[in-house]
Amino acid sequence: MSTPPLIDPFARAITYLRVSVTDRCDFRCVYCMAENMTFLPKKELLTLEELDRMCSAFVRMGVEKLRITGGEPLVRRDIMTFFRSMTRHLESGALKELTVTTNGSQLARFADDLFDAGVRRINVSLDTLDEDKFARVTRWGRLPQVLKGIDAAQKAGLRVKINVVALKGFNEDELFRLTEWCAERDMDLTFIEVMPMGDLGGEDRVGQYWSLKDLRGQLRERYTLTDLDYRTGGPARYVRLEETGQQVGFITPLTHNFCESCNRVRLTCTGELYMCLGQEDMADLRAPLRASESDAPLEDAIRAAIGRKPKGHDFDYSRQRADGQVSRHMSHTGG
Ligand code: SAM
Ligand code: SF4
Question: Rounded CA gap, 35 and 57, in Å?
Fold first, then answer.
């Protein structure tokens, strides 16, 4: 049973939903969270059944790609039950891809289960290959645990993409080491420009803003970069390094040049739908979900929300100010 597809006012089809399944995390990355975070009371969170209803409604309405994120999605209790419940949409063909963005800490436990549920590709966030630096940037994370997780994922048959947040004065000196490491392990690599998210206290800031234009320039000193046409409808652009054959992505969320092809919306763990990562406007989908056993009110609310999807966002780093700063954390909206 499907309903008409979700088309926003700018004729963009919404086919990609990112879902944050928890605001909690076992790490405290300096650019993402404060060390002593206050997390949401459990009753605020969508239950696993509610997450299923929510995602299934979106799939019925044309969403073909589901990315599970957080917080750290794999620390949510029983989260594999949810992944397994999404398998039916992969099997029916309605859902083309089920994927996850993780810090890797729980992968040694869950890699096989993820593969069995139909996940084929995952993103693992990893900013440094130096143990001390890793502990500094994640505060609570331990590098060997994550490396074990990545091993387990590859062994399970999952294709791994590494996401690196570019931080000047922190991992600038590891640009080539990280690139070579990924090439050796046949993993794709994407650099993310750090975004001005929330108030993180600032006391233990590691590194500073490192523009990906600059990073690209540094890569060009060693490799031949060929621009690729490959697009995902998001803020990523890709090149191939001719010397290694490797694909490298650059995510610059602060530039406007991707908004016209935006195909995605984000659902928070409390059921708020954000139509744009850089805008405050959101729609509460939990109320219509909880108000009725029928999905009709939920579907109406989703359609109304998509009807408000803005043309683009307002981030602006010009004059060294983060003008479009939004107050919520990435762990809330699900980066
Ligand atoms: N815990 C999982 C992880 O770390 O992959 C999933 C959630 S995390 C919020 C998703 C992505 O957002 C990670 O790759 C992380 O590095 C990135 N991220 C968090 N805060 C960011 C910020 N202020 N600027 C840019 N990327 C950020
Ligand atoms: Fe946790 Fe991911 Fe945020 Fe790091 S980036 S604190 S791992 S949610």
Answer: 36
Ligand 2 atom closest to Cα of 103?
Answer: 7
Task: Convert the pLDDT of each residue in 306-319 to its tens digit.
Answer: 999 988 876 544 43
C-beta of residue 54 within 8 angstroms of C-beta of residue 20: no
Give distance in angstroms: CA of 295 to centre of ligand 2. Answer: 32
**Closest residue CA from atom 2 of ligand 1:** 102
Ligand located closest to 326 CA: 1
Our CA dihedral for 301, 307, 308, 313, rounded to 10 degrees, sits at: 120
Residue 190: helix, strand or coil by DSSP? strand
Rounded distance between C-alpha atoms, residue 193 and residue 34, angstroms: 19
Q: Which of 279, 288, 274, 311 is nearest to 18 (CA)?
A: 274
Residues near 134 by beta carbon (within 8 Å), at least 6 away in sequence: 126, 127, 128, 141, 142, 143, 146
| Paired tokens of 216 | 């690209």
Cα 73 to middle of ligand 2, angstroms:
10
Cα-to-centroid distance, 225 and ligand 1 (Å): 26
pTM for the complete prediction? 0.93
Name the residue at shortest CA distance from atom 5 of ligand 1: 102
Give dist(CA 182, CA 266) in Å, integer. Answer: 29
Distance CA 239, CA 294 (A): 46
β-bridge partners, 101 = 123
User: In ligand 1, which atom is closest to the CA atom of 70?
Assistant: 7
Residue, of 136 and 235, whose pLDDT is higher: 136
Q: Ligand 1: which residues within 6 Å by Cβ?
A: 25, 31-32, 69-70, 72, 101-103, 125, 163, 165, 192, 194-195, 197, 330-331, 335
Tell me if the domain spanning 16-333 has CATH number 3.40.50.1470: no
Output the pLDDT for position 322.
43
The domains of the chain are located at: 16-333
Give residue 27's pLDDT: 98
